[in-house]
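note to self: dont lose this again. the chain is below, predicted strucutre after it. 208 aa total, dont forget to put it in the shared folder this time
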Amino acid sequence: MNALRRAWDHFEEGFIAFLLAAMTLVTFVYVILNNLYTLFYSLGDRFSSVENVFFVLGDFTIGLAQSMTWSTALTKALFAWLIFFGLAYGVRTAGHIGVDALVKLAPRHIQRHIGILACVFCLGYAGLFVFASYNWIAALFNAHIGAEDLGHFGVKQWHIGMIVPIGFALVFIRFTEILVRILRNEQTGLGLVDEAAEAVKLGAEESK
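---
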């Protein structure tokens, strides 16, 4: 079980890194192509003896740039996957910001009860979104509508949107794990980031 958990954690981190890398690469190539053809045209005007070569390169580059109309849609789709897949990763790594200054003033057993209540609310929220988004994806699946600027590649809207129920299902699982740990007295709260404590820590490190 621990080996499976570690494998999933590594996959989670690797998949997020892949999404970030893919977004960066697609955007980088598109921006470069949209700026490179102007360079070739400028060189063609400057060096008239070989202007045909530079103009040919410019025409080829601008053709590539114009053919990448799908890049913006792909970047948006990758970003959506990054957001909803990253929700569960943020819960696992305590990456979400928590405002619990008043809760920490309460006794430990009170903090535990508040943590259980908060966890139940989070589970209800995630479960509601899983149910609602599943019905939405089912409707998109039946409609069989192509994704904007990606439909000619065979990408459908439900291919992009299915990350919503998947992401919230993963969030539900992560909060279930937290609830189990709270009930076992292994932690008292949701384990979110204390922004004030982090700011104090960073300030202390910078002053050294």
